[in-house]
Amino acid sequence: MALHDVLVLNSNYEPLNVCNVRRAISLLILGKADVIVLRDEPIVSAGGELDSPAVLRMKYQVKRPLPQLRLSRHAVLARDNYTCQYCGVRAKDMTIDHVVPRWVGGPHTWDNLVACCRRCNLKKADKTPQQANMTLRRKPRRPSYIPYLSLPTYLKAQGRDEWRDFLPYFPEVQSVSVA
Prior knowledge:
By secondary structure, the chain is an alpha+beta fold. It has two domains: about 5-65 and about 145-165, no CATH class; about 75-125, no CATH class.
């Protein structure tokens, strides 16, 4: 998530989206949004300096369906905080592992997928953790929360101080700060 990203809130202060600063400025110029929080550093342009928004609020309610928590590689990595569930290594270059391998009948579900470093994935291969003499640090499960933002975006947004007050709180979520 870039430093110049802007959190966009619905008129009822629910997180709606994260957009770039160019899109945020256009929403302001078109009169569709108001600035809630300004960033410390201004935007420097040929015409001078402009205040840089960090959080915007739409002037009207944007209707949208309740989001579905989709199973994806990025969502599994975000759920597991980019940490290998076998050895505990944190890295951006992670793989996804089926705890019970597909060939044994293991499903492709939240409860059977974990983040795994490449070394542990090669060691485990097509075996169960017991066969590979490996133990899981935490049992995988489907997250019980559904943020309006995608799960990876929500978790990264938790690390931004100026956004944290506008994001719903889910006690089971840790902030993610992966370089």
